Amino acid sequence: PLYLTNTSYPAKSTIVSSQRLYNMYSEDAPQSSPFSVPSLYNIPGTSLWQTITGNYNSYYGAVVMNQYLYVVFGSEVYKIDQNKNVTNIGTLGTSPNRVIMVENGQQVTILTSNGIGYYYTESTDTFAQITDPDFPTASGMTSIDGYTIVSKAETGEFYVSDLRDTTVWSALAKATAEALSDNIVALATYQRQLFILGERSIEIWYDSGVTAQPFRPINQTFIQQGCIGKYAYTVSNS
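User: That's the sequence. What structure does it adopt?
Assistant: Structure tokens below.
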């Protein structure tokens, strides 16, 4: 760490005086510290990497799969490679106000705010809407171990795709979060576990490895705390 004094620092510290800081913040020393001055820490900055022609107020989501960045601007879906080459790979039926994007290693799946699913298969350069009749009008989505998982809107049910194939869904590959009678609001993945966020509860399930619907609840992991909205959560890797 750097330490704040009454004199200016060299230019490499990005500080132009003892009162003015750029991209840094101060933290008071603890009472037990032998130093009476606060420590200074860097704040990560951002820089422009690439631009996409269009309405920049309509950025809705992004996900990385293999060596590509996939983004949604308005109703358009783009693929960007490491050399910053931008390719338009498809168009959503309507412009959403938010999307959820996941990947299974071979396909990117996009869930729009009105519950419609789209997919892009990298190997065949195919973009299309998910048309399997067993794919529900979905409210939340996540992915674990090559499976894509969606929750059925206004219910406690969730559905699981075929392994690494988000185009195939089965009415038998489903389960219900039953700790409480609340509806599922959102789905999340953390440390290879499925977090089912309901209106008044959270359940944690794991991949049991069995066929059809492989996920099973972990005993004694019921949390009597719910989620207010399907975008009102975040997952931290720290």
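Residues 1-17 have pLDDT under 50 and may be disordered.
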